User: Fold these one by one.
Assistant:
Number 1:
Amino acid sequence: MKNFRRTTIRLFLSLLITLFLSNCQDEEYEKIDQPKSLLQTVSKDDAIQFLEQQKNRSLTSKSDQVTSLTYDYDHITQEEITNSTELLTVIPLLTNNAQEYSRVLMVTIQNERQTVVYSMYPETTMNTSNFSGTIMIRTLEGDFINGYRVKNGENISQFFSTGSTNKSSGAIGLKEVVIQNNYHAPNYYISFITIFQMGSYYYNNVYTQLYHNRWNYGGSYNYGYSTSGYFDSFPCDQLKKAVDPLNINNMMPSIEWLKTKVSEAQNNKEFGVEVKMRMNPDQTYTNIYNPIESPNEFNVELTTGGTYIGGWHTHPSNADKMFSFGDVSFLLDAYINASDSRKATVFYGVVVNNNGSVNTYVLKVSDAATLQTKVDRVLNDPIYSELTEKEKYNAIHKKQAIIYNKNKGDLEKSFLEQFNDYGIELYKISQTPSETKWNKLGLNSNKTAVSSIPCN
């Protein structure tokens, strides 16, 4: 839901025209970026059922490759496919480590389920942006499908099966052929033709569409890997990019707008900026910032779900100058409702004026399961069972205000004490006339003071 403050008929008409034009643009974008697809998403439940069935079948077969694969079902994702509204189902292996990053990729193409094991072996450290190492694509049974040697994101050679097998090791013989690359541009996306070896469709209309159905190597969950663009795994990398003046799509104009609002003489209602992360036809991403003026003093309603990745808001003069429990709950909602490929980018920021000092903070999710458990435990406390949702949050916030007041103005320390085990991280902007930096805030080792770690 969204709140719009209609102050004049002229403003309303202007807004109506803007929305009409925006809708037309969105419709045009959908036609360009998302044509009717030959693909169908495999649901997470169907993917699990299929893999378990394959394991059971392999128990009676001569190959034990399928039964040796152990799947991390807790971290299945469904990730974007360019030029399609369908999603690629991605199941990581439990055996992943710093030397190997393997995932099962699953999608239905022309009513036939396609499944491969996609493995990345880095030369040094794992980084899906400008990756260097080898990529091997195999069947669940371990049969070779395709492979590449990659240097700084460029495919420099391709592997082909020779058809021979090493008698002692059982390894399949591979021949490596150098690829001529006149463009020398990193490959941030890989085509479904390459992944699923759809050569039988060569040069027909199916081939043409599948060539433009691509995947961006996906998220990295928790193996210490990072991905390209806004998909950087580490919050510090995301936040630095968000305020980088060289990034023309940075968030600083939105932050500065909110800073002017909390600095006004009458800071008696909330303002917000919801952030939508849109995929462009050229396979890049653009953040769309929608400023919102709320008629309410203590809340502003921002959109969550799908392509929305969170947003910013302010606190008025009469509110605590730090995140509330309701803000933490909103972060959880934004995370749960965001598309799987965008969850790592979800954030929630607040801009506050604390006695003339304007501070900017951001929350990021570090452990979604823990966050869900903690928020649910508070909301489901029996003492609130007879209250409406609004009354429940009001009661929780009154308790929180008392806790903040007891900390003698040290709101950062108080917040960290209250939410230290919630699976979230707190960041704060540090600004000079020439530079904007982020610091991660946490309690020191003996929990007596706030420590600040720069995002270098």
Note: Residues 1-36, 219-233 have pLDDT under 50 and may be disordered.
Number 2:
Amino acid sequence: MTEMQSVGKELFAFAREKAGEDVVGQVAASIRGLGSSPKRQGHS
């Protein structure tokens, strides 16, 4: 399970770099189970 979380965090970090925080936040919000945008790794 932790491997999938690591992959997910990396995927969202890459998507934020390419598409921006707002777009990624909208996508994440539409995925059931995520609820809100995953927090950036290393940022509070």
Note: The first helix runs from residue 2 to 19.
Number 3:
Amino acid sequence: MPLPRAQRAVPRIRPVERIALLRDPGLVRPRNSLALSLSFSLLALSPASARPVQGRGTEARPAPKGEKLDAAKRKAIETLAKEWFAARPATAFDEWDAAKLAALKGKAKAFDPLPASWVPDLRAILWTAARAHGPKLDGKPIETRVGKITYDLSDAPDPKRGSQFGLLLGLHGGDNNDKEGSKGVAKSQFAADLGKHKCMGLFPQALGDFGDAWNSALNERSVLTLVEMAKRTFDIDPDRIFVGGFSNGGSGSYFLPGRHPYLFAAAMPFNGIVFPERDGDVIKRLHHGLLPNLRYVPVFSSTGDDDRHCNPDTFVRADADLKQLRGEKTDEYESYFTLRKGDGHIMPKGEPQASYGKVLPRKRKAIPKALTWECTVAPQPTSSDRLVARDFYWLRCEAPTEKMRVEAEALEHSVQIKIERHDPAGFTIYLTEGMVDVTEDVRLYVNNEQKWKGRLEASLVTMLETLSRNLDRQQIFEYRIEL
């Protein structure tokens, strides 16, 4: 669950198939002469605007090696973790109470800096507390400020064995004039054979206007809520979360991983669309802020060349754009696309089960060393209730801008970042052991200018905040540097 965020009021436009123009969308690989280059290096730095949250000076104390977490401190941290997750917003429709959050951060800071040897134990302590608080997937509707979220489940595991199971999020199709818009239809399409692959199914019912369905602000928040609840309830493997859907569900199976790729291991879109900007019948470009973010989310897509409901040309273009992004790489921007000759707007015979053997064994890259983040602040369909996507794997931007683009790479002795269409201020870089050598001084360069030098220190505040983002036990970071 994100920390408090500002909402951005934007005008409403027509549903997906009526969109004729996106507001100045970016190209697949935008270029900007104002690109800013940042690098964290283990070579040389001096104090300046960028800083680690703990250990601000150059004489930061190295973490004690081998120091054990004693019983009294363990108990105190367990108590604090329970307080933290009891206060955490229950759904993606809710916000933190700012005063409570500030008070909890104050308590957590009292433990900082943490001995590095405590971190493995603390991961388990925090995850236990996170699972113990908040709503569970018990079959009952979930109350939110905009109405009730309903859903169906299949192959739900015993929570004691949940870590062996993945999760398939199955998104139904349909619009306001047909009967495809049902969680039961999605379940009938996707549930069969999931158990054979040690995967449970989660089939939500869309909120609001079916014409917007899974690309809408309401359903983006609904899906994020449900995925968190599945983690909390069943302790599923967060590295095996998949999304698939037909028609509007196929559109959502491109949109949701494009906005939140750090959640998903793979996507299976069938017979949907990716928002286009058109010049007549010709696609000029697809919506910015989606495809470039799919660097580590393989897409297994399919549509019929005679689909009269969802024009197949956007899926054709998406496959071509992903292949262009991939270039000569062998394990990034994977796209496996089938254009079915003579098929209309129907689920292909034998699917999605025919693809399960290729898709469901996939594992997410939870903390990739290199990132590409292209931002869409107000994606179509625009809404005043749109969630601001501030987090992206191990990066955070407090105030992202439209078409902001970030390239980041963690090397053995440095982290290097280039930023387009945004000032470096307001960024946080989260780090964990194995990304850089945290036993040595870290040096920060901004545009090749030395900005800071110091020793990174583990932080309980950072661990709590990063687990709170989306309840992901594989993406808990203990170090941070803020710009």
Note: DSSP finds nine helices and 22 strands in the chain.
